[in-house]
């Protein structure tokens, strides 16, 4: 078992309290009535599934019940950071691949 940091509760909690909800930072179409069926379908159904660093939406289902974002490495399941909705990630695929944030950001959102 591992512990995930909830940015709203400001504490580490057991992994069973959290549930992933999909890709983070997906912009809703500004004018749904003027959006084409293809664009609306892309928004509703198609998500990125990268091998490596990925930003995901999670919910603290058994705790504060708030949604927050997680930056996770899909190859290792390592959570690199957690941050509130509306904030921007400090870890990106580019920063990890260049090594600038890899050493400082590894497992900041997880406690063994």
UniProtKB/TrEMBL annotation:
InterPro entries: SoxD, SoxD_sf. Residues 93-112 are annotated as: Disordered. It comes from the Bacteria. This is Sarcosine oxidase subunit delta. It comes from Salinicola rhizosphaerae. The gene is soxD.
